Amino acid sequence: MSEEKQTAEQVEAAEQEEVTEQAEQAASQEQHEETAGQEEALQHQIDELQGLLDEKENKLLRVQADFENYKRRSRLEMEAAQKYRSQNVVTEILPALDNFERALQVEAESEQTKSLLQGMEMVRRQLMDALEKEGVEAIEAVGQEFDPNLHQAVMQVEDENFGSNIVIEELQKGYKLKDRVIRPSMVKVNQ
Questions:
Q1: CB-based contacts of 171: which residues, under 8 Å, 6+ apart?
Q2: Which of 7, 134, 151, 152 has a C-alpha 20 to 30 A away from that of 169?
Q3: Backbone angles phi and psi of 170, in degrees to 5
Q4: SS3 category, 80
């Protein structure tokens, strides 16, 4: 019996050992599953945070691009304002310049009138020099092809001496300030 008892004890010890191993394996598996669950939760949290980070980076890039565009637009507007700062003054002076040119077309009959016209021509020349320093230039019209960006056609005639769509006569001078037309030339155009 002692052998039976010993065998029974061995069987019981083996069973006890097996139960302990199974319990340890179950605990280990639970711990592994718990760790895997935590890893999965952490990975999910990392993915969410990465998505938020990407979204914020995109917003930042858009804001930076918008700001750069704003700076560029502002700079261009400032340059244009500086470039064309004298446009209002020039526009106001042009009618006086037109009157000078009309007055200079009068034929002088006396020495006194000739002297007066010479003085007026000098004043007109000084005005033109000052305007040219600001970037004002007269638009060439007579003999040029009609350009609606530079010329305003007020009359059309048929003249065999000129080609089609050629400016025959300038009725009022046009002017440009740098590259901007501030007053188109009023012209007579051949059909």
A1: 154, 155, 186, 187, 188
A2: 134
A3: -105, 120
A4: helix
Using CA atoms, how far residue 188 sits from 49, 107, 162, 164, in Å, is 73, 24, 12, 12
Place of tokens 């470039």: 83
Domain boundaries, the chain: 35-83, 84-190
Rounded Cα distance between 87 and 101, Å, is 21
**What letter does residue 157 receive in the DSSP assignment?**
E
Placement of tokens 């990392």 in the chain = 46
The set of residues, in sequence order, having a beta carbon less than 8 Å from that of 172 and lying 6+ positions away, is 98, 183, 185, 186
Q: Tell me yes or no: is domain 84-190 CATH 2.30.22.10.
A: yes
| Separation CA 80–CA 72 (nearest Å) | 12
Pairing of strands 185-190, 151-157: parallel
Q: 156: closest CA among 144, 166, 145?
A: 166
CA distance 123 to 69: 46
Q: List, in sequence order, every residue forming a beta bridge with 177; answer none if it has no partner.
A: 136, 180
Q: Could you read off the pLDDT of 22-41 as tens digits, one per residue?
A: 777 777 777 777 777 788 88
pLDDT, one tens digit per residue, over 71-96 is 999 999 988 887 777 888 888 899 98
Phi, psi (rounded to 5 degrees) for 162: -120, 155
**Cα separation values, 50 from 36, 47, 102, 125, Å:** 20, 5, 77, 72
